[in-house]
Amino acid sequence: MSAAPATPIRVLLADDQHLVRTGFRIILEVEDDITVVGEAADGARAVTMARATRPDVVLMDVEMPGMDGLEATRRITDDGPDAPAVLILTTFDRDDYLFTALRAGASGFLLKNGTPEELIEAIRVLARGDGLLAPEITRRVISTFVRPGDPAGTAHRGADAEAALGELTPREREVLVLLAAGSSNAEIATAMVLGEATVKTHVSRVLAKLGLRDRVQAVVFAYENGVVRPGG
């Protein structure tokens, strides 16, 4: 008896250009493990459709009429850890867009001049629950822009964040510090003299206790809440 096929990754496309959305759909629907569940031409529609179709990943343009992709990302991810992962797609290679997208809750950032293979792999990475950005890029942007106590905060900061941090064990807090440094599971295992399977369990518990989706959000959380400091 053959095994049942895996459930395809459900993707929502949000871009104000019809031809761009059509191109993405053609690229993605060739893949057996990806299905496009809808399209949105503006941010407000993307929010509505994300809540209606419950995709695994939203491909989000930045500049759209009305509500832009950054605000739409914030509203989508405000639905909690079960909200879809958001992959920001843009033609602009700008740190301020990248940082704003991260603070809004995006799990990845990809330039539109990338290849179809890069897009497909990015979707698969986010669907697995991983962040897309290289740790060094994340650290550079966060170190440049985040300052503890900055009033332009997110839902990750405040009494709820302090309470969540209080739930971490000393070992889990050490894992969070190493995550914020961009360490891989193997590097964390070496630093803490643990097996990689044990580290993976600790990482999962840290994300769950803090209500975070992936390692990218853990980096943002750690900097915004003073667990680590820029340049430290």
UniProtKB/TrEMBL annotation:
<feature type="domain" description="Response regulatory">
    <location>
        <begin position="10"/>
        <end position="127"/>
    </location>
</feature>
<dbReference type="GO" id="GO:0006355">
    <property type="term" value="P:regulation of DNA-templated transcription"/>
</dbReference>
<dbReference type="InterPro" id="IPR001789">
    <property type="entry name" value="Sig_transdc_resp-reg_receiver"/>
</dbReference>
<feature type="modified residue" description="4-aspartylphosphate">
    <location>
        <position position="61"/>
    </location>
</feature>
<keyword id="KW-0805">Transcription regulation</keyword>
<keyword id="KW-0804">Transcription</keyword>
<dbReference type="GO" id="GO:0003677">
    <property type="term" value="F:DNA binding"/>
</dbReference>
<dbReference type="InterPro" id="IPR039420">
    <property type="entry name" value="WalR-like"/>
</dbReference>
<dbReference type="InterPro" id="IPR016032">
    <property type="entry name" value="Sig_transdc_resp-reg_C-effctor"/>
</dbReference>
<dbReference type="GO" id="GO:0000160">
    <property type="term" value="P:phosphorelay signal transduction system"/>
</dbReference>
<keyword id="KW-0597">Phosphoprotein</keyword>
<dbReference type="Pfam" id="PF00072">
    <property type="entry name" value="Response_reg"/>
</dbReference>
<keyword id="KW-0238">DNA-binding</keyword>
<dbReference type="InterPro" id="IPR000792">
    <property type="entry name" value="Tscrpt_reg_LuxR_C"/>
</dbReference>
<dbReference type="Pfam" id="PF00196">
    <property type="entry name" value="GerE"/>
</dbReference>
<dbReference type="InterPro" id="IPR011006">
    <property type="entry name" value="CheY-like_superfamily"/>
</dbReference>
<dbReference type="InterPro" id="IPR058245">
    <property type="entry name" value="NreC/VraR/RcsB-like_REC"/>
</dbReference>
<protein>
    <submittedName>
        <fullName>Two-component regulatory protein, LuxR family</fullName>
    </submittedName>
</protein>
<feature type="domain" description="HTH luxR-type">
    <location>
        <begin position="161"/>
        <end position="226"/>
    </location>
</feature>
